[in-house]
Write a structure and sequence with these properties.
Distance between the termini of chain B: 27 Å
Number of helices of chain B: 7
Structural class of chain B: alpha+beta
Largest sheet of chain B: 5 strands, mixed
CATH class of the largest domain in chain B: Alpha Beta
Radius of gyration of chain A: 22 Å
Largest interface: A-B, 67 and 52 residues
Strand content of chain A: 5-15%
Order of helices and strands of chain A: HHHHEHHEHEHEHHEEHEEHEHHHHHH
Distance between the termini of chain A: 30 Å
Number of strands of chain A: 9
Largest sheet of chain A: 5 strands, mixed
Oligomer: heterodimer
Structural class of chain A: alpha/beta
Helix content of chain B: 40-55%
CATH topology of the largest domain in chain A: Rossmann fold
Helix content of chain A: 40-55%
CATH superfamily of the largest domain in chain A: NADH-ubiquinone oxidoreductase 51kDa subunit
Number of domains of chain B: 2
Number of domains of chain A: 3
Shape of chain A: globular
CATH topology of the largest domain in chain B: Glutaredoxin
CATH architecture of the largest domain in chain A: 3-Layer(aba) Sandwich
Strand order of the largest sheet of chain A: 6-5-9-7-8
Chain lengths: 441, 169
């Protein structure tokens, strides 16, 4: 069971009901649950979308696209049914925030899905959880069943004639790639989770060919809170063009790892040194992967930056999924880079050649370097391969593999060179034998 | 819907499948969940499982095989009764994920994707399981175990071996 953490610097919006048994529908209703959706039914789609636009909420999956704008792209008239799809396929290494949401506040996801449906004119929503989250799926399934029993889902919800909404929960079966929106739709249609070419975008042609809004579970869970407090009020909590708060999962070498709710724009340095209690065991900071494993690494002297999409972009990295992975001085970047690319090589779906071949060759090359067979030109080769993956694939997985790789070899080039010359930094965590076994799988 | 009279699944699972195919605009959408639930019951995706699921969804066997081979949790060979899945991805690695994996290898005497001779345990090194802030972590079947130490792993494995472990289905 995830350990609950808190810190005085937290600004509690999304976590308001956490730790209070809000998975129980009675408790959720007692804590203002299902009020936002009833208000949304009264106020209508335009009001919902305007509130969302005013809130400055940007997609919490990683891309940071403004949610209100995304919803406004869905055509009002459509021959085909429209759908809301909630992405709970949380698989980005370093990220476990949706895990906490499904556990502590599943009804907020259900309510958010209904509000999104009202906004775009959909009558059906899907909540897709990764296959590994079976115990969370059961919690969400129970919550959905309870909502049906109360008349909050189904036909004429809340006693309103002609207002219908259905929610179906879905489980994946192990695939990082399915977290990409078009691959997610393929998976939900019972196919291999390979990406679709865009355009057309899901807002126009999505699930079953109908206009579809796809949002991350945290984005959706934020929606009822935003409607309750007002868009402007929510926006004020964050920084410029980055409304509100978000859940940051701080992991790795910190004293108090955990999922903390911090305002957008909060200092990365303070998040590590104050909120998470600083570096474990009083060691020195070496590097930070600031938003899940896809984000280019920041060096220890680059952490005076605000945690929002724009400031992180300016710092040459990304806010991503909000998973902050902290590395202390004992970590070998060569090893860390290898472990990172090993993941992407395993998860590349194989659809686009630059990603399928690129991840494999980078992994092979870095394995050779790691196993002491490296040559100096291997560093250039890795960089060349990664640069040639960028922007050349259907979905962002190719970029997601290339960007951190480029970050490691560019910012820590000296460490790679020293490693090849036999001067090793850090304490090995993997053994050669394990790495060879890994290469076979 | 194709009527399957001689189902290989338990009445409860067969009833679940009958319901699943009605939930979606296209019944093929039930394929991935059906494969996973079938595996939960049968232990792996066997040839009869492929045939029955294809029949239930009006698909060719090949369609099912194509999807089956994509998802890492689906397997075509039996695993142990308790499948120990140790995460070694970055957050877990930084906090001793490989130490936990090695400990499990020694303790169980098996390697990655192998099964103990008595069929009780199998071991897998897996990618991120979404427990990064409580690392190092592993799953035994669907149950999460977090903030692991070798000693904690010993007691968890002993509990499962003694039939006292939690088993989420």
């Amino acid at each position: 069971m995830p350990r609950y953490v808190s810190h005085p610097d937290e600004v509690i919006v999304l976590k308001r009901r956490h730790g209070q048994g809000a998975a129980n529908i009675e408790k959720y209703v007692e804590l203002d649950g299902y009020k936002a959706v009833q208000n949304a039914i009264e106020q209508g789609p335009e009001w919902i979308i305007n509130t969302m636009k005013a809130s400055g909420l940007r997609g919490r999956g990683g891309a940071g696209f403004p949610t209100g704008m995304k919803w406004s792209f869905v055509p009002k008239q459509s021959v085909k049914p429209k759908y809301v799809l909630v992405n709970g396929d949380e698989s980005e290494p370093g990220t476990c925030k949706d895990h906490v949401i499904f556990l502590e506040d599943p009804h907020s996801v259900i309510e958010g899905t209904m509000i999104a449906g009202l906004a775009i004119g959909a009558k059906m929503g899907f909540i897709y959880l990764r296959g590994e989250y079976r115990y969370l799926l059961k919690i969400v399934e129970k919550a959905v069943a309870d909502a049906y029993a109360k008349g909050y889902l189904g036909k004429n919800i809340f006693g309103k004639d002609g207002v219908d909404f259905d929610i179906v929960t879905q489980t994946g079966a192990g695939a990082y790639e399915v977290g990409e929106e078009s691959a997610l739709m393929e998976s939900l249609e019972g196919k291999r989770g390979v990406p679709r070419i865009k355009p057309p975008f899901p807002a126009v042609v999505g699930l079953y060919g109908g206009p579809t809004v796809i949002n991350n579970a945290e984005t959706i869970a934020s929606v009822p809170h935003i409607l309750l407090m007002g868009g402007e009020e929510y926006a004020k909590l964050g920084s410029e063009r980055n409304g509100g708060t978000r859940l940051f999962g701080i992991s790795g070498h910190v004293e108090r790892p955990g999922v903390y709710e911090l305002p957008m724009g909060y200092s990365l340095r303070k998040a590590i040194y104050e909120v998470a209690g600083g570096i474990k065991g009083g060691k020195q900071l070496k590097a930070v992967v600031p938003g899940g494993s896809s984000c280019p690494v920041l060096k220890a002297d680059e952490i005076d930056v605000g945690l929002d999409f724009d400031q992180m972009g300016k710092a040459g990295t990304m806010l991503g999924s909000g998973g902050i992975v902290v590395l202390d001085e004992t970590v070998s970047i060569v090893e860390f880079a290898l472990r990172t690319i090993k993941f992407y090589q395993h998860e590349s779906c194989g659809w686009c050649i630059p990603c399928r071949e690129g991840t494999d060759w980078i992994k092979k090359t870095l394995t050779r370097v790691y196993n002491d067979g490296g040559q100096k030109k291997d560093i250039d080769n890795v960089q060349y391969l990664a640069e040639n993956m960028m922007g050349r694939t259907f979905c962002p997985l190719g970029d997601a593999a290339a960007m951190p790789t480029l970050g490691f070899v560019k910012k820590f080039r000296k460490e790679f060179e020293d490693y090849i010359e036999g001067k090793k930094a850090g304490t090995p965590l993997m053994t050669e034998e394990q790495e060879l076994a890994g290469a076979a799988h | 819907m194709a009527v399957v009279t001689n189902t290989i699944f338990s009445p409860a699972t067969a009833a679940r499948f009958d319901k699943l195919v009605t939930l979606y605009p296209l019944k093929r959408s039930a394929l991935v969940p059906m494969l996973l639930y079938a595996q939960d019951e049968i232990g792996y995706i066997s040839e009869p499982v492929i045939r029955e699921i294809a029949q239930r969804l009006d698909l060719f066997d090949l369609d099912v095989r194509s999807v089956l081979s994509y998802y890492s949790m689906l397997r075509t060979k039996p695993a142990g009764k308790f499948n120990v899945q140790v995460c070694t991805n970055i957050s877990c690695m930084l906090r001793g994920g490989y130490e936990i994996l090695n400990h499990c290898k020694q303790k169980l005497g098996i390697g990655h994707k192998q099964v103990t001779p008595d069929g009780t345990f199998s071991l897998e090194e897996v990618e991120c399981i979404g427990a990064c802030c409580w690392a190092p972590a592993m799953q035994v079947n669907y149950d999460f175990h977090e903030e692991l130490t070798p000693a904690k792993v010993d007691s968890i494995l002993a509990d499962y071996a003694a039939g006292k472990g939690k088993d989420v289905k």
